[in-house]
Specification:
By secondary structure, the protein is α/β, with parallel strands linked by helices. Helices cover about 25% and strands about 15% of the residues. A 7-stranded parallel sheet has the order 1-6-7-8-9-10-11. Strands 2-5 form a two-stranded antiparallel sheet. Helix 5 links the parallel strand 7 and strand 8. It starts with 11 loop residues before the first strand and ends in a 13-residue tail after the last helix. The structure holds iron/sulfur cluster.
């Protein structure tokens, strides 16, 4: 896994896509573009080559994507190499349903997720239209959780699109929460809230997250508050109304096959990896 993730609601990240395009208010301070630009200067030539040419600093000093979305097929093999069950955030540095990701590549990722039921995959997109369009052509394994971002009220229609998909667990990332939101939570299993963090963090009012918590309570939906954000997110912490919220859907446990079997599966599904399922570099 791409090291242990510091994201509070997952254990690991699986980045077989790098690069994206800003498409939504929540993208303004995209952390992925910062990470990818930094990794393009990594002293390890494999890491720098994977990340090169995807992000740049604009004349106004802000970072942006160049527009290229890069698929790294050999990385599709990585989950076979992880020795213990993990909750895996799929593509923290891109968007699985970006318009430039070929449907065949998305299907291959689903094949890997289906072949590794001992992991739980958390896919998150802002491209809810393409998600809904492709969903009938995807065979949804029970260990794939599908989420959409809803950073403010104008993006609530993404929830309607998510509802139409075949995912067993459907969730909302209400982060960075930019204002009060009223959500239709019918058919939704899990909601995550959080304030924006970083040097350009926009204001966050805990009352907005508390109101989402109340909507989750009324609808019987699991609720997770990730962070209060701000320029120093360590200082503002995760307490909301004096306590933490760590609700999360149940994971379906499944045994991890021996390494020999996992290598054979990887060789069949991801021949590009050349039979290696070593832990990846970011
Ligand atoms: S969709 Fe996600 S990865 Fe892509 S620009 Fe927006 S915040 Fe960044």
């Amino acid at each position: 896994m791409s090291a242990t993730s510091s994201i509070e609601w997952t254990n690991a990240t699986w980045n077989f896509l790098l690069g994206c395009t800003k498409c939504s208010a929540g993208c303004a301070s995209c952390y992925a573009v910062t990470h990818v630009l930094r990794m393009a200067g990594n002293p390890n030539p494999r890491v720098s080559a994977a990340n090169a040419g995807l992000a740049y600093r604009q004349d106004n000093g802000l970072l942006n994507w160049t527009g290229e979305v890069r698929g790294l097929p050999d990385r599709l093999a990585h989950p076979f190499g992880w020795p213990a069950p993990a909750k895996v955030f799929v593509n923290s540095l891109s968007d699985l349903f970006h318009e430039d990701v070929p449907v065949g590549f998305i299907r291959r990722a689903f094949d890997v997720m289906r072949a590794t039921p001992w992991h739980t995959y958390q896919c998150l997109t802002k491209r809810a239209g393409r998600l809904a369009e492709l969903s009938p052509d995807l065979d949804w394994p029970a260990n794939v959780w599908m989420g959409v971002s809803v950073e403010s009220q104008p993006y609530a229609p993404r929830v309607d699109r998510l509802r139409t998909t075949g995912a067993r667990v459907k969730f909302l990332s209400v982060e960075p929460l930019l204002g009060p939101v009223t959500l239709d939570l019918g058919g939704i299993d899990w909601v995550i809230t959080g304030g924006e963090s970083g040097p350009h963090a926009r204001p966050f009012d805990p009352a907005w997250a508390l109101a989402v918590r109340d909507q989750c309570r009324a609808a019987g939906v699991k609720f997770f508050h990730k962070q209060n954000g701000g320029r120093n997110k360590k200082a503002t912490g995760r307490l909301l109304g004096g306590r933490t919220y760590d609700g999360m859907p149940d994971v379906i446990p499944a045994p991890v096959p021996p390494a020999r079997e996992r290598r054979a599966l990887a060789a069949r599904l991801v021949p590009e990896a050349g039979g290696t399922v070593a832990l990846p570099m970011a």
